């Protein structure tokens, strides 16, 4: 058996999926309130998917981690949803939720929040059923020309990559290639949604420090256009509520683009 690469073994050893969920997706125990950054992200995704203009047979989330957060609106718009990640531990964490395991992470506060923002046209229970029926899990590596290798899928209607690219890419060249690799998964006219951070260099999961690629707005815009997309929306939020000692992020950006 081939030895794992250094990058894979570092990431594999350090990434504690459960701790990640507790640190970055834990809710206020008294109010069950979700944090401000999650609210911004979910509001953006509700807006993107509410018109029905972005929908179709399938969507793929690249680097979903152990997280369901980004498909809570999209689950109403696509027949199949592929949640993909580099690490099995993350897919296993989602699998626990899909199978209704007692120790699965509780996404109820997030489901309730999205239903409210959508005007309660569906209930959290409806969304749970929809997600369980539609989601399939798959390994991916966004640095590969086919990120889903050894699998292939028909070109998809939409890709979401949230918090993934600045983790997965160690250099600007790798970032540029990863966007092109993502583009290859999307049909012409299909959409990409990228949510990521500007000016960040690390984040912590407990004691484990994960290095990030520091990028700025100009780099993102230049590279997304170079990868064959036209930008529909690019929004930057400054006041991210994550404590600076956990994550040295300066700004979060929300990008919607379509493949030309
Ligand atoms: C900060 S986490 C983000 C997880 C989740 N998307 C979120 O928003 O909370 C970064 C994710 O990128 C994944 N990742 C790292 N390298 C990757 C690669 N080469 N290809 C795809 N995903 C990768 C990690 O396994 C991890 O799940």
TrEMBL record:
InterPro entries for this protein: NNMT_TEMT_trans (IPR000940), SAM-dep_methyltransferase (IPR053384), SAM-dependent_MTases_sf (IPR029063)
UniProt GO cellular component terms: cytosol
Highest taxon listed in the record's lineage: Eukaryota
TM ranges: none
Residues noted as binding S-adenosyl-L-methionine in the record, renumbered to the chain: 20, 25, 63-64, 85, 90, 141-142
GO biological process annotation, one example: methylation
GO molecular function list: N-methyltransferase activity; S-adenosylmethionine-dependent methyltransferase activity
ATP-binding listed as a keyword: no
Alphabetical keyword list: Methyltransferase, S-adenosyl-L-methionine, Transferase
Record family assignment: Belongs to the class I-like SAM-binding methyltransferase superfamily. NNMT/PNMT/TEMT family.
Protein name: Uncharacterized protein
